[in-house]
Write a structure and sequence with these properties.
Blueprint lengths: L10 H4 L3 E5 L18 H12 L2 H9 L8 H8 L5 H22 L17 H13 L4 E6 L4 H11 L6 E3 L1 H6 L10 H14 L6 H9 L1 E5 L2 H11 L4 E3 L5 H11 L2 H11 L1
Parallel strand pairs: 1-2, 1-4, 2-3, 4-5
Helix pairs in contact: 2-3, 2-5, 4-5, 6-12, 9-11
């Protein structure tokens, strides 16, 4: 592709595209860090449980280890094991809506140092800036959030950072809409959905014939070795990076190299 052109999403260009799949909580955003008012994902979950199930359920939830990167349906099933499928859907909706109300109200609230909650993981905004620059030069680099979190919250966080949301967000709502609400990490079905959505963008049908090639052009980043790491292994995505706050800058740097962003930067410098 000639740089300076805008990306062309066609079946012919799909073979040169690359996909960055990212978890959200603890990978992209430091949502486990309390906001200035003391709210984080864990606290929001507890408040929502109190509203939907009552104080005794909060105690049970805490005894069970808290959120532990579980999807809303997993949390609800643990607290209401005898609920019917219809009752579970109602409880899940109430839990999610209550949790979102708590979380979104704190997005963008300021810390004393002027940064806002939730802070991005170190190095992440630099990577996104470089990806946007590469896209403006015609590079086919797509990014996708694969999370048990919630699209409205993720969109609000990106807006608070002043950058575009990812190309695709496959969060809790998307799985429910597809009738896959019972599928949670580390189910390989989630990565199949991600690849299907990505291929659709280019007018390509994702199937067995292209699966190996698509996996080879995918890099996946997550903070949970059991849920994210096992998902990568089950999905055949070998290029997986386990991230934490200590290795975050280094990890996003490795992703930049894999996406050839260094090469693109050298090209732009030479042109200028």
């Amino acid at each position: 592709m000639t740089y300076g052109e805008q990306p062309q999403y066609t079946p012919d260009t799909f073979g040169s595209a690359r996909l960055l799949v990212k978890d959200f909580d603890g990978t992209v955003a430091q949502t486990f860090e309390p906001s200035p008012s003391g709210i984080n994902v864990e606290q929001a979950s507890q408040q929502a449980i109190d509203v939907v199930f009552g104080a005794s359920a909060v105690d049970e939830y805490v005894r069970d280890g808290g959120l532990r990167n579980r999807a809303p349906l997993e949390v609800v099933k643990a607290l209401a094991p005898d609920a019917t499928p219809t009752e579970l859907r109602v409880l899940q909706t109430s839990f999610v809506n209550s949790k979102l109300g708590v979380l979104i109200s704190d997005v963008g609230s300021e810390f004393e140092d002027g940064s806002t909650w939730p802070r991005p993981m170190p190095g992440y905004l630099d990577l996104q800036e470089r990806i946007e620059s590469a896209r403006s030069e015609g590079a086919l680099i797509d990014d996708l959030i694969l999370s048990s979190g919630h699209k409205d919250f993720i969109d609000a966080v990106y807006a608070s950072w002043g950058i575009p949301s990812p190309t695709h967000i496959i969060a809790e709502e998307a799985m429910r809409e597809r009738g896959l609400g019972h599928r949670v990490k580390p189910s390989s079905v989630l990565m199949k959905v991600a690849h299907t959505v990505w291929a659709d963008q280019y007018g390509v049908v994702f199937n067995r014939d292209i699966a190996a090639d698509v996996r080879s052009r995918t890099v996946f980043v997550g903070d949970d070795p059991d849920k994210d790491g096992t998902l990568a292994k089950r999905s055949g995505v070998e290029n997986f990076h386990l991230i934490n706050k200590d290795n975050s800058v280094e990890t996003w740097g490795k992703i930049a190299l894999w996406l050839n962003l260094e090469e693109l930067a050298e090209y732009e410098t030479a042109e200028n």
